[in-house]
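Posted in: Structural Biology > Protein-Ligand Complexes

Title: Requesting predicted complex, F0G in pocket

I'd be grateful if someone could produce the 3D structure tokens for the following input. Sequence and ligand are given below.
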Amino acid sequence: MPARAGRDANATQEVTVPFHTIIEPFRIKTVEPVRQTSREERDAALRAASYNPFKLRADDVLIDLLTDSGTGAMSSAQWAGMQRGDESYAGGRSWFAFEAAVKDITGFRHVMPTHQGRAAERILFGCAVSAGDVVPNNTHFDTTRANVEARGATALDILTPEGRQPQLIAPFKGDMDLEALERVLDECPGRVPLVMLTVTNNSGGGQPVRLANIRAVAEIAHGRGIPVFLDAARFAENAFFIKLREPGYEDREPIEIAREMFALVDGAAMSAKKDGLSNMGGFLALNDDALAQRCRENLILTEGFPTYGGLAGYDLEALAVGLKEALDPDYLRYRLRSVAYLGEKLTAAGVPIVQPPGGHAIYIDARAMLPHIPAELYPAWALSVVLYLEGGIRSVEIGSVMFGAQPDGSEKPAPLELVRLAFPRRVYTQSHVDYVAEVILYVNERRARIRGVRIVEAPPVLRHFSAVLEPVAGSLMV
Ligand code: F0G
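-- Reply #1 --
Done. Output follows.
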């Protein structure tokens, strides 16, 4: 029986859709070969990369699910836009196209293009956050956390209790804990310069945030004169989840829902490498004139003139088209369905994943899958490396290697040990997804043989990008 997902907690398509085969809503016009490698070649590649997937050569990867950031395929309309890109230093046509697209969707008064999301974060926090401040978020992404901490402030994650239970099926596990928010604001008067909501909640499993939660967060914060910002990297996926799961939104277009999300808050930092459907880009957009002025000065100092930020004219043009394409219901339905399809295959085989599947990725719960590996031996990192060894699939650990190092130099296990399989947008087909499922099931059958890893060498900040690791047992599988 094909799942006829309705307005269930894990719905990924409308009840009215009569057919259930997932078809990619595009034809393929250009192809790029991917290369098969042997297990021996992958073993050697892992050694050369000191067991760090970030250090693998992409040519040695068969299916690259490291990230959905900047890895998407652009449409013919975007490529056509790139040809039209206006490279004028100031006031270029492409800038106006980009600004119009961002304003049409977000409604914010001030739009600043940046080379990617973290530049928008750095500029925003650099202008609004001081040492000793506290920034609440449902869950900070790692660069967002690092940029808050770089200001000497505390990055506080206050997800609902539901969102912290990986196996629980609930529709909006990205919601912020409203009571915790009120408590933080009461306990830290004058020290919370802004509240942030990450949509969808990447580090918490790609889970959506309901409009009612955005509204409530805004009411609580605004009641104390505190602005709210969205980390809008995956705003379009969040909007489609609202359409599918939040009562009253079933007949609304994704673009209308997105506009409503942004209308409730005061600004947004966006990595447009996700739901901007482009390979590079980001923006900071907000309403506060004085803050915008300070941010724009910083933008000029570090990114570029305000009408191009850190981008080429052709990037701005690709984004102007991509931001709209990302809100196409056919595209969003295919996207959410194909991620859920992998989730369903894994769940049916007993592989523990964060439930329900997120918008852009499947997160394997490595602590549940590998209970014999303690947090100190980084179970999620070990699993991610084994998926490469056995099947040439690159994924990313979101666990104690990424989040375990504390600002004071100590080590604390992360709340969850996850392996994220992120889907690049419009890149892989259904048979690629079937292959990924087959490899994970193969590894799952051999899970008792997987051993942990240790860190040999790592920098203190964002250590996962460059850490040197080794298998504790001399080999990943015994
Ligand atoms: N916010 C969120 C929620 C993100 O997922 C990312 C990046 C950023 C901000 C930073 O944006 O990379 O353009 O500077 N996430 C990527 C990922 C890297 O793999 O999830 P950026």
